[in-house]
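Quick question about two entries, pasted in order.
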Amino acid sequence: MEQVFESVKDIEKQLAGFISQDEKTAEAVMIENAAVALEKYVRKACSKTKSRVTVLCGSGNNGADGYTLCRRLAGSCRLNVIKVKNPKSFHCISASDNLINVFQATSSDIYFYDLNLMQGSTSVEKVISKSDVVVDCIFGTGFHGTVDSNIQKLFEVVNNSKAYRIACDIPSGLDVTGENISSLTLEEKKKVVFAADRTVSMLAHKIGLFSDAAKDIAGKISVAAIGVSDSLFRLCSEKVSLNNKIYLLEKSDVKCPVRKEENVHKGKFGHICVMAGDKAGAAILSSAAGLKTGAGLASVVVNNNCDYEHFKIPASIMISSDIPSTATAVVVGPGFGRNNDFEKVISELKIMDCPDKAFVFDADSFYYKELIDFLIKNSSEKNSCKIVLTPHPKEFANLLNLAGLGDFSVKQVCDNRLELSRKFCEKFTDVVLVLKGANSFITVNDTTYICNSGSSSLAKGGSGDVLSGVIASLLAQKYDARDAAIHGVLMHALASRKVKKNYSLTPELLIENL
């Protein structure tokens, strides 16, 4: 896993002191190294010997990265340099002048444009239509507010072109939180933000790149070290970001269950139990997912109103009217409904005779006040049971309200996922929160883990039920709550990537792919 930062500006200042005692020299070195990183991805994207590369340059140090990139590419490809904003910062002016000097000295195949003057044969549409690669070096992380109409037109043309699009640090038009475009459709986003195929994030991952709103805008995300070692970066980041505990989960982090011993029995791998309410289908999916990911036994607990007889239930799933005495992990919520006796369920959970009992709460459970009482009791007790919550934003908004933490709309939850997750977990110690979304946030106490491996194929009824069963299965196999959530979310996300057509994934196929 890699660390994610809300801001790296203070870290940059620390690093500059190690590069040079002169601030401007240190910044120049970092700009050169940023251009080297961009150059690597530009050359990789250039399929033809004489590809046409267009670089969009702003007025600050992001623009300086762009002009420096052009200087490095001069002579090796056909270059369009579009001045989107007049250079203002010291380094941007210097890098622009250096590029002009190279052009005058070598007569390289470089064409310079001013965005405000582009028309006729040199219109934005004509220049971009002939481009193989477009690099965004306009705003960077300092952006806030909105872009003007000229830049909106530029973005619309670029985003609808066939060119491969690379963003420097963060796609221009996206603010540092990544939430300024959260209420927009994808087509609306493409008019106000540079939609990258790849974002090259300088120094470290930034939190804004992992907002749900940025999922369709950031593309593939790479980190460029810009000339400093990992150990030096860690040293500087620890000095200025003492409380930064945000991590990006990677494919290599996943740890699936492993059965090392041969002399074992089914009871060794736990017994998951799913409390079915009105709709047994969700509970059956959850149970089946639990078995597929290693649980030794799986049961569905039904009540008198349950429609389980309408389903073809796998023979491996047991049906019970009460929580089995051997149950080690219980799932509550999938298909439960909002008019059932949740208080009775909570009472049954409290008297479970299991020294290492674990619970996953999902779906309809987030609409019952009794859940809050259960969480308060168990988060305040030492050596209490393991609890994982898996709400989507609408459910989390209701949960926050029940917990007395505020009345939030779904949009407010989506715009403040990190802050609200932390706020909730500060109140409920050791409870693990999995806030589902295009990128899922897993928070426990003061630490958050981000999974950006999921795909749009998961946007289908039943996907969340499968996740609850996977996490419960890992809990039953003696993973602690944090690890069960982390590895369960990763297994679930990576399984969704195995399907060839993103619209065709069903919960049953998702279970097969686990």
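Here is the second entry:
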Amino acid sequence: MVVVMIVPGVHRVEMALRAAAGLVLHLHRGMRNFIFMFQEMQDAG
């Protein structure tokens, strides 16, 4: 906590990394669902 007070930029970087990680996880999950749907469509056809 003391380091964050000394270097205010670290908190901003941590927030950015957390947001980027969340976005990547969200996209990965969406991509997996898309591939699953695509495979089901191919099986039906």
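Reply: The mean pLDDT is 85. Helices lie at 2-6, 8-44. Hope that helps.
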